[in-house]
Amino acid sequence: MEKKTDIRTLNFEKLLQWFLENGEKKFRAKQVWEWLWQKSVTDFEHMTNLSKALREKLSTHFVILPVTVDSSQISSDRTIKSGFRLHDNHLVEGVLIPTTDRMTACVSSQVGCSLTCKFCATGYMNRERNLTGAEIYDQVVLIKEQAEQNYQQPLTNIVYMGMGEPLLNYAAVLDSVDKITSEEGLNWSPKRITVSTAGIAKMIKKLGDDGVKFNLALSLHAANDEKRNEIMPINESNSLKNLEEALNYFYRKTGNRITFEYIVFYGFNDKLEDAKELLAFCKRVPSKVNIIEYNPISEANYQNADADAIDKFAAYLERNGVTVNIRRSRGKDIDAACGQLAIKEA
Questions:
Q1: E strands, 90-191, where?
Q2: Phi/psi of residue 226, each to 5°?
Q3: What is the CB neighbour count within 10 angstroms for residue 148?
Q4: Domains (ranges, CATH) in the chain?
Q5: Distances in Å between the alpha carbon of 127 and those of 123, 124, 341?
Q6: Closest by Cα among 153, 200, 145, 149 to 173
Q7: pLDDT value at 329 more than 70
Q8: 257-274 exposure pattern, b = at least 16 Cβ within 10 A, e = fewer
Q9: Residue 34: which region, alpha, beta or left (left: phi > 0; alpha: psi -120 to 50)?
Q10: Do 151 and 98 form a contact (C-beta atoms < 8 A)?
């Protein structure tokens, strides 16, 4: 028996070719494409403007492998964390983060992670596999539905800051962005999408070469190689000097300044000297800074810096011309906050 092809792995040209080779009209391929990517349909039977015979033919040759919500938790601050079940039974987590002016979807790009950042729960998991572009897209659709059903508000932003390193799943991440932003897809503005990386210099340059329109964030957390090596082993092969060169290359190609994400750890990177090093790095790369509260995990001994220390740190940067936002944690009570995502099976 012929093994069915996952129809959502085909680009439009391949889909069109199949229709023409199977004696179907060209416009039918466009209809199916719209059902898949504009209307987010995951069952051929729901493609109601196709004949029953064509729907049966599609079902014979193709399969759709949707992501489903396995479980959800709602935090006291209205954050919703979901475990998303994949077709091969793996789980990833995604989060809806509601604030006064935004509804943000935080999505995963890998099952687990191959990087071993010492402060991040996902970094203590194995990387099982990359997600497909469709699996990333599905997370956005499901979180969008949660925003509309629970809070009667539309989704406003998407961040690739969940499980995994997006730039180590480059093709699928860009494929998902294309399906979310194209007119034939969800028709989102790429300016409402941010992809966050731990810092893989050659892939940051590739983003520049590919002329991406979305925002890029770098998980920095120390502007000092020795400290960054300690908490982010990826820095040993992607030093700050290499990242600086890659980020400036990205900026020259895209015109998009970079957001540095900086967790202020108590007694580690929270001193004036650390702020001075960060300021110097910011002056060399067109950038702004998001200061993030640390969310403790059982695997590591790091603690969040005192609120007073965080405020002083931010004030120093601002006095010296850096745009700074302090991001307060959301969903901490359900392990949904930044750095806390890890599958905990019951």
A1: 91-98, 103-106, 110-111, 129-130, 157-160
A2: -60, -45
A3: 13
A4: 5-63 (1.10.150.530), 68-334 (3.20.20.70)
A5: 9, 9, 13
A6: 200
A7: no
A8: ebbbbbbbbeebbbeeeb
A9: alpha
A10: yes
Q: To which residue do tokens 């759709």 refer?
A: 64
Kindly give, in sequence order, each residue whose CB lies less than 8 Å from that of residue 207, ignoring residues fewer than 6 positions away: 167, 195, 216, 250, 254
**Pairing between strand 91-98 and 193-197?**
unpaired
For the stretch 184-212, pLDDT in tens is 999 999 999 999 999 999 999 999 999 99
**pLDDT band at 302; cut points 50, 70, 90:** confident
Q: Is the pTM of this model over 0.85?
A: yes
Query: Across the chain, where does the E strand assignment appear?
Result: 5-6, 62-63, 68-74, 80-85, 91-98, 103-106, 110-111, 129-130, 157-160, 193-197, 215-219, 258-263, 287-292, 324-327
CA pair distance 192, 189, nearest whole angstrom: 6
Amino acid (one-letter) located at 309: A
180 sits in the region (left: phi over 0; alpha: psi -120 to 50; else beta) called alpha
What would the pLDDT profile of 132-188 be if each residue is shown by its tens digit?
999 999 999 999 999 999 999 999 999 999 999 999 999 999 999 999 999 999 999
Distance of alpha carbon 163 from the chain centroid: 8
Q: What is the dihedral of CA 328, 293, 296, 299, to 10 degrees?
A: 130
Structure tokens at 161: 């800051």
Asked if 212 contacts 177 with a C-beta cutoff of 8 angstroms, the reply is: yes
| Helix (H/G/I), strand (E/B), else coil: 46 | helix
Instruction: State how far the Cα of 175 lies from the Cα of 11, in Å rounded to an integer.
Output: 10
**What residues act catalytically?**
93, 338
